[in-house]
Amino acid sequence: GNSVTQMEGPVTLSEEAFLTINCTYTATGYPSLFWYVQYPGEGLQLLLKATKADDKGSNKGFEATYRKETTSFHLEKGSVQVSDSAVYFCALYPNDYKLSFGAGTTVTVRA
Amino acid sequence: KAGVTQTPRYLIKTRGQQVTLSCSPISGHRSVSWYQQTPGQGLQFLFEYFSETQRNKGNFPGRFSGRQFSNSRSEMNVSTLELGDSALYLCASAEPGLRNTGELFFGEGSRLTVL
Predict the structure, then answer these.
(1) Is the peptide bond between B61 and the residue preceding it cis, with omega within 30 degrees of 0?
(2) Contact A72/A23 with Cβ under 8 angstroms?
(3) Which residue of B has its CA nearest to A93?
(4) Which residues are CB-contacts of A8 (< 8 A; sequence separation ≥ 6)?
(5) pLDDT digits (tens, 9 = 90+) for A90-102
(6) Closest Cα partner for B20 from B85, B66, B86?
(7) Residue in A closest to B98 by C-alpha
(8) Nearest to A99 among B50, B102, B107 (CB)
């Protein structure tokens, strides 16, 4: 079946630190991969996506590369801000009308 | 353009009651999905509708049901509520097209507490 494994949190960082959140997946076929973010008290928002192997998704300084050989889609940001504090979800979409999400990683950035 | 609107935002029910949650998608979006979010199980897919047809369903008991209307608005219903049904229920809509791409626009959710 399809599944996503995310690095467990919570993660606490200082402002301007480097952030990495690991994500690996198991899927048949060639799914699209996503990172969604949930700010406190809000629903999820799409952060970035990649639809095929070696694609790099990027948005708001965040990046992730679709690595088929390692079945990974790690999220990175070079310099985090307090406003990046949120819960981050890795997700895969194997074209069956549903997203499979990882457990989520809570990130707290301190000034 | 208005976002995905879910009502009610908060509600409290007791065990054995039933509840109906409503979702209005972004104008022009015809696909609506529902997800349950709990601290223990994370985000779990409930069902997805397109043009009033359910295209996929998650592994939830028959107490959980949904439907979509001709104007793309959707409702989900949970009957005979159990304590474990306490959760944030998220609705999401997607751009028109027969095949979703996985890019969903989420509402803020309906937080259900079962006492």
Answers:
(1) no
(2) yes
(3) B102
(4) A103, A105
(5) 999 987 888 999 9
(6) B66
(7) A97
(8) B102
